[in-house]
Amino acid sequence: MGENRRPLLGIESLRKSFGKVEVLKGIDMAVHKGEVVSVIGPSGSGKTTLLRCVNFLEIYERGSIRIDGQEVGYRDGDNRQRRGETDLARMRAETGMVFQSFNLFPHLTAVQNVMLGLVKVRRKPKQEAREIAEHWLKRVGLGHRIDSLPAELSGGQQQRVGIARAVAMEPKILLLDEITSALDPELVTEVLDVVRQLAEDGMTMLMVTHEIAFARDASDRIVFMDDGRVSAEGPPGELMAQAGSNERLDAFLSRFR
Ligand code: ADP
């Protein structure tokens, strides 16, 4: 145990460019089992790209990403055919991702949205998948809306379905990408409350967020990214204290003071 134990998610020297523009300039990051790590930083600093690399949505050029010691993500030059689609879906499910834009299937009800991956990827029988889906929808406070279509739900409710869908797959780590950014302010709290509950239950999470107060309250550590690099990191109190000696961090945080 201790600081040297293998992290659940280990990112080393990760580099990624779009064309000639390098947006991740050598990222090192570790998330240990049960930890909640928030990534904050100015727009364009590479936060979303980082999560997308972990979840196989972007190809990176250099470095490594490991979950439980197993390489994930696509490095440039990998033979992508090596991983069949189902295999890929299964590995992706290790890293449940919740997106800013919900990404629910509009023609499926809440419970059907949550069941889909359980049936198709986890190969659960339909009845069992339904039970699991209902369990998680209740956990996010939507036991009464399981048969609603996304269009019949508020943004906050849709996002809670998105969270239920991700956690129902029992991912080793949950990746949350600015999941409250598209919500009206009055709907933010209900979604953050669900995240807080998951954190208290021991879910390992890496979340990109603009909710600085929430990051401070709910995270074990905060990582400040700036211009494709990790510029500062530490437990919330320590990170905030570093603003005194880190101008960019100070400028960033001053917007929220
Ligand atoms: P953040 O999440 O911190 O706002 P992003 O990871 O979204 O930052 O973006 C980092 C940089 O990469 C930005 O300059 C953005 O314009 C650029 N970028 C992101 N996605 C693409 C893409 N698909 N093609 C080209 N450039 C991109």
TrEMBL record:
Organism superkingdom: Bacteria
Gene3D superfamilies in UniProt: P-loop containing nucleotide triphosphate hydrolases (3.40.50.300)
Its transmembrane ranges are: none
Q: Which CDD domains match?
A: ABC_HisP_GlnQ (cd03262)
Q: Does the keyword Cell membrane apply?
A: yes
Localization, per the record, is: Cell membrane
| InterPro entries named in the record | AAA+_ATPase, ABC_ATPase_HisP-typ, ABC_transporter-like_ATP-bd, ABC_transporter-like_CS, MetN_ABC_transporter-like, P-loop_NTPase
Q: Which GO terms describe its cellular component?
A: plasma membrane
Q: Has UniProt tagged this entry with the keyword tRNA-binding? A: no
What keywords sit in the KW lines? Amino-acid transport, ATP-binding, Cell membrane, Membrane, Nucleotide-binding, Transport
Q: Which GO terms describe its molecular function?
A: ABC-type amino acid transporter activity; ATP binding; ATP hydrolysis activity
The UniProt similarity line reads: Belongs to the ABC transporter superfamily.
Tell me the protein's name: ATP-binding protein
Q: Which organism is it from?
A: Aquamicrobium defluvii
